[in-house]
Amino acid sequence: MIAGILGGMGPAATAEFYAKLIARTAAERDQDHLRVAIWADPTVPDRVAAVLDGSTDPYPALLAGAGKLRDLGASVIAIPCHTAHFFLPRLAADSGAPFVDMVAETAEFLAGRTGPVGLLGTRGTIAAGLYQRRVPEVEWVVPSEAGQREVDAAVAAVKRGDIAGGAAHFDRARVDAPLSVLACTELPLAAGKSGKVLDPTDLLADAVIRRCGGKPVDVRPPA
Amino acid sequence: MIAGILGGMGPAATAEFYAKLIARTAAERDQDHLRVAIWADPTVPDRVAAVLDGSTDPYPALLAGAGKLRDLGASVIAIPCHTAHFFLPRLAADSGAPFVDMVAETAEFLAGRTGPVGLLGTRGTIAAGLYQRRVPEVEWVVPSEAGQREVDAAVAAVKRGDIAGGAAHFDRARVDAPLSVLACTELPLAAGKSGKVLDPTDLLADAVIRRCGGKPVDVRPPA
C-alpha cells in the first residue's frame, strides 16, 4: 500500500501533514510506517482566485499531479488543501485516482452536531460552500470582514514562512463559537495547540492510515 | 526543476528535511517554492545492519526509489539518511540519477578546519568511515560505548515518535568537542536548537535549493 499526497498547496502545510501522518501512525520502527509518495507542486495556479472569479486555472496541474501519484501506485491520495477540494469530484472522475476526501471525513466527524461551529478558511473555501453544503445541520459562523482579513493574513504569513506572524493574525481572527474548523491547511501551523479548534488534517491523516491498513494512534480531535 | 527526496529512512527525518527545505527557501508565496517529489519507503531494509554485517540488503529498494524519482523528472535527488550514503556511489552509477551528496556538502563546509570534531551517528555510519575518510584533517571524536548506546537510543526513540525521549538520550550522548556533526538524520529532531552542532541536513537543503535555481535564506550553520 502506498499513501499518495498531492501537495504543495502550500508547501509548509504539506510538510506539516506528512509529519502528522507519521506522528499519528502507531509504529515502533521505520518498517511499521506507511510508504508515502508526495508530489508537491507549489506552482499550481492560485486556487482561491479560481473559485472566486475564475481568473486562474489550477485544474490541469492538479490533474497532472494526480496522474503521477496514480502511476506511482498510490492506493489512496490525500490533498492537504481545502480550497483544492472544490475540484475533487472532477479530479477523481478524470484521473481515476483513489482520493480520500478531507471535507467528507470532517462531515462524518461532525455528524449529529448542531449549534454554532466556526469556519475559518480562505475566501474561496467559504464562497464555494464546501463545508456549509456538506454539513447543513450546524450553524456555520464565519468571521466578519475584519476577521476574514486576519485569516487571509495568517495564511499568507505561513506561506512566506512567518509562523509567528501567522499566529498573531490567527489570534485576532477568532469567531464566537465553542469549536472552529480550521478549513485551510496553513491554519494549523498558525493555531498552535488551541483546544477550541477541529483540524481536518488530523481526520485526513487517520483516514489515510486506516485505508493503508495502518493503525492511527489514539489522538482524538476535540468533540 | 524538480527536487527529489529519496526518503523514509526514517520517515520523521524525511518530513523534517522537507520542512527545512521549505523554511530555507526564500519565498513570499507558494509559487516561489520548489517543486518537490518525495518517495518515502520506510520498509527499506535496515541500513545499519547492511553496513555492519551484511545481514540485510537495502540496495534493491534504494535503486527502485531512485528510479521512480528519476522517472518523475527529478533534477536533483537528496537522501536524508547518512547511513544510506554508504551506497551512494553505486546508486548514482546504477540509476543514472542526479544525486546531491550530503557527506560531500559537509566535507566542503568543514574544509580547512582542524582539531576535534564530534561525530554522532549510527554505528553503521561510523564503521563505514563516511566522514572520517572524507575529512581526514580533523580529529574525529566518537562517543564511548556508553555514549554510543545513548545515540542509538536517541535514534530509536525518534523513529518510534518519542521526540522527548530522544532528546533525553541525546543530552547524555555528548562528546568532548567544540562542534559535533549530527551524522544521523534522526538526531536533529532530538538535538533541538543546540548551538554546538552542525546539522548536515541544513547543508543538504541549501545545496538542493541552489541546484534548483532557488535562493537559500541566510541561515548559516555554526562555523
Automatic annotation (TrEMBL), chains A, B:
Show the GO MF annotations: amino-acid racemase activity
Instruction: Tell me which family the UniProt entry assigns to this protein.
Output: Belongs to the aspartate/glutamate racemases family.
- SUPFAM superfamilies in the cross-refs: Aspartate/glutamate racemase
Protein name from the UniProt record = Aspartate/glutamate racemase family protein
This protein's UniProt keywords: Isomerase
- Classify the source by domain of life: Bacteria
Q: What is the lineage of its organism?
A: Bacteria, Bacillati, Actinomycetota, Actinomycetes, Pseudonocardiales
Q: Does the keyword Isomerase apply?
A: yes
- One Pfam family it belongs to: Asp_Glu_race
